[in-house]
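Shipment paperwork, digital attachment
Item: protein structure file
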Amino acid sequence: MTEPAVPGLTRHFITLGNRQVHYRRMGPSAGDGPPIIALHRLPRSSKDMVAFMQAAAEKFTVIAPDIAGYGSSWRLNLPPGAQADDIPQFRDYVDDIDNLIHELGIKRAALYGEGEGAAIAFQLALRDPKRFACVALDGLMLLSETEAAVARGALPIFEPKWDGSHLAWLWAFLREENCFSPWWSATLETRIAEDMPGAALLQQRLVQFLAEGRMGPGSDAKSANATGKSGHHGRGYHFGIISALDFKPQTHLPHVTVPMLLTGSPRAHKHVSYARQSSPSKSCSFKLAANPTEARTAAIDFIAQNIGRADPPPPPPSVKPIPHALWEDFVSITGGQVHVQMNGDAATVPLLVQHDAASSVGTVEPITRSFVGQRTVLAFDLPGSGESDNTLGYENVDVGHYADALNAVLNTLGLEKVDFYGMWGGGFVGLELALMQPTRVRRLVASNVFEHPGDELQWFADNYTPPIAPVWHGGHLMQCWHQMRDQGIYYPWFDRTAKGVIKRQPFLDVAMVHERVCSMLKAGNMYRTAYQAHFRYPTFEKLKQSPVPTLIATTQWDPNNPHCQAAATAAPNAKLQVLDEDFNKWGESFLPFLDAG
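Attachment content:
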């Protein structure tokens, strides 16, 4: 699923209070196109708007935010006393986009929305018609009270299960919504006469569904953030959908004062027809499109005819830090953007926390978070992982290429010296960076390191990273789930024999496995590229050359312990440390070594 950067498209975060909203931006090369705010349907993200952005960017500057709690936008804050599964009001989602537009400095714009995003765009146009020149709505649903009630009851709770069955449900849901509209009503009348999307497109939508959606630090103590779970990864996918059902467009159509187009492909035709029958104002027009591409083209043409005078938006503002929390940003390097989490409450030598293959900053977030207020701390998604663009490709990639990319990021940020912690193969990237730039890395911590010699290396290379190949029935998801879960009970995970059993209390936390699987699915087959690069790394030889004080860390149960002990012996200035069984305590245990510099 990992992709190179889309030419001309950039990604950004903006801080709204104590939480962040993520958005994509694309426009004419001169940057002077009038703005369109483009809002996606649910439960997808602004990635679903890229085709629209590419079609409209010749004339317009398109800004496509992730709606709160979807994609990479943080979830809405909960009021005092609320539970983590309480559903926000529809106006809260509208307020959030309204606040985003104000914070971006946009005075006047056009609005475009699909599905639930169309409902938000409609409400924005009703609130302040002077700020919005026109609005184009694709697939706006007009439901009766009875239909809305049925819809509310048809959305099941998404909660990871130990056996991975939640992923089987998700794949079935993604297929069903292309068979029937609404997807929960399988009748001849609701049948969609369109091609079923291929497995690759369904996989893209699955990854959007499983996006993180972090909680803000100001949320109620009973929230997911307070329990240390940074992202919902599909949990709460129904919040925005149910909230949007409270909005009844048909009651407002007679009062529309801005030019408004209602369009959609055949699955939306009945809603467009309902809108025509709802005594709409003269500002409304209608277009029945033959397919999604035609609907988007009609929307762009309509906006071009009605936007009038709208000044180009200002450049993207810099991200405002959030005290006492990890906040996010993107750093541009050659070939694309790298995603970063950071906190600078404590002014110290920055500590870079680096994840391993098949994971992301979310995997190491408990460690990164433990340094907030004690160290300036940063965590990067390696190129091709998490939210970072794939700037490296898939072939002939080695650890040096990852170190080059991080070195470019540090140069862009103006960070001349850092401490470095890397988990598993992430430690190799720090070691390579230290060898490449000896004055840049002050102290290095590497946990759970390894080196596989001879036939063992070939054994790992041949078996550890089976390709992720989406298939029409979704069976590849079970492969990914059991592959990650088995890492907690066998070593290596593919040696499911008595010899491969890990002799410790099994660590099979469902939330942890789900987070790892989500990161793996997001990286797609780039996870194989990363793992293979780490397997080939000559760890012991490189450690002998290490110019920096090094701490090799491991747990008592780690099957790689012989490798870690040998690594500590190989490095002339390294020592070995045994880690606590509690992963959340690892960061704190590194402080004595880091502070001794």
